[in-house]
Amino acid sequence: MYKFKDEYRTGIDFIDEQHKVLFEIADKTYNLLKNDFALDKYDRIVGLIEELQDYTAFHFNAEEEYMQKINYKRMFTQKVAHDAFIKRINDVNFSKIDENQEEYITKILQLLNDWLTEHILENDMLIGK
Fold it and tell me: Do you know which Gene3D superfamilies this protein is assigned to (predicted)?
């Protein structure tokens, strides 16, 4: 379902490669949501959240270092958006996930979907220009 397409290319190879990983995490999340055979998805949800926490911290740091290196004028705006995304991922209440697993998977997927379609297309594209 989630595949990295040419329209998401920023023209900065390492950023594009890192964005591909975010698409892969989104695809794993979507597949978990659609998996009707897994009745208890708690451990997999927690694993996806932890993977997302670790990977976004790595990716955002790399992207911000690059923006600083090229004196990117919109770096502050990017950093604010990155910090807000990380806060949302880090503020997940793991004890509540078990109560409504499908709802949490949907929330994660919506967050990723919004990020991939809005942030990359509207903000990260400007870095490559």
Answer: Hemerythrin-like (1.20.120.50)
Distance CA 12, CA 79 (A): 18
Closest CA to 10 of 61, 63, 58: 63
Q: What is the pLDDT of residues 70-86, one digit of tens each?
A: 999 999 999 999 999 99
Residue 50 CB partners (closer than 8 Å, separation 6+)? none
Question: Exposed/middle/buried for 99, CB within 10 Å: 0-12, 13-18, 19+?
Answer: exposed
Domains of the chain plus CATH, in order, are 21-128 (1.20.120.50)
One-character DSSP codes across 16-67: HHHHHHHHHHHHHHHHHHH-SS-S--HHHHHHHHHHHHHHHHHHHHHHHHHH
**Mean pLDDT score of the chain, rounded to an integer?**
95
- The candidate with the shortest Cα–Cα distance to 15, out of 31, 26, 4, 25, is 4
- Nearest-angstrom CA–CA distance, 105 and 38: 13
